[in-house]
Every structure is written in C-alpha cells, then in structure tokens.
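Hi all, long-time lurker, first post. I run a small reading group and we've been trying to get comfortable going from sequence to structure in the token notation. Rather than ask abstract questions, I figured I'd post a concrete chain and ask someone more experienced to write out its structure so we can walk through it together at our next meeting. Sequence below, copied exactly:
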Amino acid sequence: MYFRRASPEDVPTIVGLLADDPLGQAREDFTDPLPDCYLQAFLRIHQDPNQELMVVMDKMEIVATFQMSFIPYLTYRGGVRAQIEAVRVHKDRRGEGLGQEVFTWAIQRAQEKNAHVLQLTTDKKRPDAIRFYEKLGFVASHEGMKLHFK
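-- Answer (accepted) --
Happy to help. Here is the structure in token form:
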C-alpha cells in the first residue's frame, strides 16, 4: 500500500467514496458524467500549496482518500495548524486498519510541515467515527459551529 497525491483521473473515484454513505449521498452528485464542479474544485485544491488531496493505493485501486490542509496563522508564534478532512475508506476495506494507516501518515505529515496541532471535524451523526478518533487520541476540546450558505 502507498500514499500519493490525487490526480484529475482520480476525481470520480474520490467523489464515489465521498458519496458512499447517507450523509454523502445527500450532499454529493455522483452521476455519470460527473459534474464539472468536482474537477474545478480539484484544480483549486491541487494548485494551492497548503492543500494535499491524497489517495491510498492498494495495487492499482484507490482504497481510501483524505484531504490535508495546512493553515498558517499569527497565533502560536506564527504557527501552522494541520487539518484533516473528508477521510473515507472504501466500504469493502473497512475494518482492515486502513484508517489507522491514514492517521499515522497524516500525523507524520503534519509534523514534517511543523504543525503544532492536527485537527479534524466530524459530523455528530457519525458516532463510530467519533469513537475511532478518540481511540487515536483526538480530544473534543472545542465546540464547532457552522453557518451554511446556499
């Protein structure tokens, strides 16, 4: 197994992973052909040096995906905050330890980028994910809030 940055050809598979649960089905448009908005989003991510959209490969198959963001700011003496989002493991590969491998890689990458923290958000409707993150040592230290726009 190995990790690599996503390529444009990976976008349909990544969107398929994002859409493969009840929450994702409600917000993604995984149709054929895939709407161009996904490729446009990929290009914005790919061109941003603070973003890394990753895929986990097993032989020639994408088995997981996630996005790392590195957010520079003034606090923490001009520190960098790493954020991991959109972590998805193919449904046929769950329970094999791939999630643990993703987070081992992500923690190491955050440290390589001199981040002082690795953070994530997860929907409260994902209790299994919350338990998994807690087992990895993540702590619910803040209350997250969102303001959605149309």
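A couple of things your group might point at:
The radius of gyration is 16 Å.
The first strand starts at residue 2 and ends at 5.
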